[in-house]
Amino acid sequence: MSYVKHTVVWVLFGYAYLQGLSTALIMSIDVQPDPSLFTTVLFTLIYVFLAAHLITKYEKLSPFFGAITVSLSAIVLFGHYVTTTLVEYSTELNLALFLTLPAATWLIGDLKSKVSLDK
Fold first, then answer.
1. Mean pLDDT of the chain
2. Mapped to the 3 state alphabet, what secondary structure does the chain carry?
């Protein structure tokens, strides 16, 4: 029952994550004279790391599962089927956006565990 409750919460967070991510994408593309995939993903990483920090802060059961749930619901469910916000972007960009949140969550969780071991 606990996983079901956490999954529902993270799916709802996925919608909010998509709204912020689409704003970060628009800003990162607009600031570049010649937008490229690498710089666009690089500019959106600040927002992704903020979301990863929130996931590791509030999800004690499984932060990586929470990040995958948020990423899947935001990019695939809400970004392509419900709001179609991400449909006009390339497949490579969508894949990069999908993979960066779980990777950032793993990295932040790893850093937090190393910092807590040092204390």
1. 92
2. CHHHHHHHHHHHHHHHHHHHHHHHHHHHHHCCCCCCHHHHHHHHHHHHHHHHHHHHHHCCCCHHHHHHHHHHHHHHHHHHHHCCCCCCCCHHHHHHHHHHHHHHHHHHHHHHHHHHHHC
